[in-house]
Amino acid sequence: MTTLQEVNGLDAIGERKNVTVIGAGVAGLVAAYELERLGHEVEIVEAGDRIGGRVHTHRFTAEGEAGPFAELGAMRIPSAHRLTLHYIAELGLQDQVLPFHTIFSDDAAYLPSSSGYLRVRDAHDVLVSDFASGVPAGRYRDGTLLFGAWLDATIRAIAPRQFYNGMHGEIGTGLLDLVEEVDLTPYRRGHNGTMIDLHAFYAGNPRIRSLVPPHLERFLDDVLDETSSDIVRLRDGMDLIPRSLATRLLGRITLGQEVTGIEVRDRDVVLNLRQGTRSFTKTCDYVVCTVPFTVLRGMRLSGFDDEKLDIIHETKYWPATKVAFHCREAFWHEDGIRGGGSFTGGHVRQTYYPPVDGDPAHGAVMLASYSIGPDADALSELTEQERITLITRELGVMHPELRRPGMVLGVATKAWGEHRWSLGAATIRWEQDSALREAQRREATRPQKGLFFAGEHCSSKPAWIEGAIESAIDAAHEIEWCERRTGVAFPARRLTHTEKSA
């Protein structure tokens, strides 16, 4: 079994420590798992009624029964996220790993255009014509215009409408002039080579990748990750990761125990807790706080320095809203769609068609709508029934089969921006350059004496499971090497995993 010491190149030192972890999401579970393997005693307190945090697999069947499910939280893992894949292997879940087919990966899927909904395989002429109308006539080869058209279409599909409108002009003549010098033949794919593999293009042309405006580096990274052909999923649900981690822990996980206040003192940390109608305090030697800062800033905080309070109150989280339909059958197969996703536009934004891995008699699941940012906010402001009605009406234009009697057997929806224990889906620092992102990560992670921090908001990979794991390893590392001198915690001068990877 690979240990945290082997991952980080460390030898365990120091005495046995008692650690309380706030939050039973992936970051909290990994932190507890690694601290226990280093010989420390750990317990987890979780305000909600389940483990997993923003990994949330909703099953449409009774507990313990096989059947369709929807990923209302994290749903994919880029193969470059080695820590996540390391834990999947560590937990014995390798046989669960299957490809995740992303947006535009099925050429029968749809996208909107000036001519209405088009199949991906038929969209190139309209996309190129629309794109070419905004650049100097006759200046670029057809291949360059095809590249620009698909980059624009992909950005439009990934980014919220407000963000896309604000950066639409970033695909300018400077980028196209560079692309004009590249042989695009190796990057053509799809029906008759009418699509461009953007992930392969940027990987094969690091000079062009390096010239991306600094404030868009993180955005491009996420666009390429989300549209890569090298993404995976877990066959029986992403919640296998937190569930498997929980079974490995020796310490107690207490659900329904809300932390309402944190007081940092020289020699300990005092937690104010509430469970049902009962309020009480708990004095802890060390604490790892993994809850989003949106939730943390609603607590009573004492003993924090001003800089730490600033980052807690200033860190921005983007909402995300998902609506999933449990359908009687995978009707999209009749339409030639075998998987992947469509860019639907409107309030729906993205629609995904998960594979039917189980018995078809149990039906199939469609992730009818996935939206982020202001688009997600617009849906979260509706009641659940209003949200379902709107999505059904809009998506029914592209998929009229939804309106067949008895087609929709059940619906699951999640608005993470309104969810009490998250108040947002993720920190997405798309408009920050690398120096500012790193400065904010360091400040978010910086301990307050015996109080340490983890979570995707404390990582170099925000919004991904990889970031939660990375930050949890770093927090366990800091606690392992922490010594108390004159009442202050002094982390040893070793590089964390994040710093080593930078």
Automatic annotation (TrEMBL):
<feature type="binding site">
    <location>
        <position position="456"/>
    </location>
    <ligand>
        <name>FAD</name>
    </ligand>
</feature>
<dbReference type="Pfam" id="PF01593">
    <property type="entry name" value="Amino_oxidase"/>
</dbReference>
<keyword id="KW-0560">Oxidoreductase</keyword>
<dbReference type="InterPro" id="IPR001613">
    <property type="entry name" value="Flavin_amine_oxidase"/>
</dbReference>
<protein>
    <submittedName>
        <fullName>Monoamine oxidase</fullName>
    </submittedName>
</protein>
<feature type="binding site">
    <location>
        <position position="259"/>
    </location>
    <ligand>
        <name>FAD</name>
    </ligand>
</feature>
<feature type="binding site">
    <location>
        <begin position="46"/>
        <end position="47"/>
    </location>
    <ligand>
        <name>FAD</name>
    </ligand>
</feature>
<dbReference type="GO" id="GO:0001716">
    <property type="term" value="F:L-amino-acid oxidase activity"/>
</dbReference>
<dbReference type="InterPro" id="IPR050281">
    <property type="entry name" value="Flavin_monoamine_oxidase"/>
</dbReference>
<dbReference type="GO" id="GO:0009063">
    <property type="term" value="P:amino acid catabolic process"/>
</dbReference>
<feature type="binding site">
    <location>
        <position position="76"/>
    </location>
    <ligand>
        <name>substrate</name>
    </ligand>
</feature>
<feature type="domain" description="Amine oxidase">
    <location>
        <begin position="26"/>
        <end position="479"/>
    </location>
</feature>
<dbReference type="InterPro" id="IPR036188">
    <property type="entry name" value="FAD/NAD-bd_sf"/>
</dbReference>
<dbReference type="InterPro" id="IPR002937">
    <property type="entry name" value="Amino_oxidase"/>
</dbReference>
<feature type="binding site">
    <location>
        <begin position="73"/>
        <end position="76"/>
    </location>
    <ligand>
        <name>FAD</name>
    </ligand>
</feature>
